[in-house]
Amino acid sequence: MIEIVNVSKRYGSNTALDDIQFTIEEGSCYGLVGPNGAGKSTLIKILSGVLQDFEGDIMVQEDSVAKNRMKVKKRIGYIPQDICLEETLTAQENLTYFGSLYGLRGRDLKRRTAEVLDQIGLKERGKDKVLTFSGGMKRRLNIGCSLLHKPAIIIMDEPTVGIDPQSRNSIFSIINQLKSEGSTIIYSSHYMEEVEHLCDSIGLIDKGKLIESGTMEALLAKYKKPSLFIAGDQLEIELLSRHGHVEPKGNGFLIESERPLSALQDLIGEFRKNGIEPSRLELYQPKLEDIFFNLTGTQLRDS
Ligand code: ADP
């Protein structure tokens, strides 16, 4: 288990993290979600032992990051947001270099380099220089560099920013494979849909504070409000609000209703009577984005 205990971090007068406290279960995939500037990278750097000057502590299976940083670091594979590779070397040479930094030598290093090249889908490109790689391939190699020592905990800071959908999918397969092997994964992102898709637990961070934490199921159950989503040109709020509280959402409206199915039937009747044809009308399942909106009053859009 990883326990984040009252962690705060200030940069001059700017409080990047304010008394953060939560736990991450072993073998889970934990998503750290929040807008840009929320404090995700700062927390990840502290967790990975990269940033040493902070208040509070983090316990990784009983070992303190503050007191025993090097011991904890050996169990962690940290994948930074910025790609950190030597472009004039081949993929294989980069992996070999990082493996040697983790203390691997000789046959073990050779074997792990080959295994990781395969794991990140770059087996055929191992002997090519990194400068010939696409952005997505570099990101995958960047991930590979942190896996050579077989860390039990893998920490990824926004690994899919600025890459094509195909590379994004191949990063998801790497993560799914690591999950199936029982690794603990901490995944930071401002893309809600990615986190929903990959993670079983989440922490929502906003302006340096943890505003919610728990399993995806528990959070959705806690904040779930039965709703209808409706979109179309001729909609009038007055008519919609007869059926519950109305909030604009994307190109339409969300209507909260205790009895969404009856509201849906009634609305269809009223639309027929008034000659209104909505472009979409459906029962709505709340998403992470709605929880964030509920808690902060601001949208966290994929951007
Ligand atoms: P996120 O990863 O969620 O985008 P960060 O952890 O990068 O957020 O940043 C949190 C806050 O800390 C922001 O206000 C950012 O400007 C500030 N910050 C981050 N790194 C530094 C730094 N090295 N020096 C000063 N301020 C920083």
From TrEMBL:
This is ABC transporter ATP-binding protein. One of its GO terms (molecular function) is ATP hydrolysis activity. Residues 2-232 form the ABC transporter domain. Pfam families: ABC_tran. SUPFAM superfamilies: P-loop containing nucleoside triphosphate hydrolases. The keyword ATP-binding applies. It comes from the Bacteria. Keywords: ATP-binding, Nucleotide-binding.
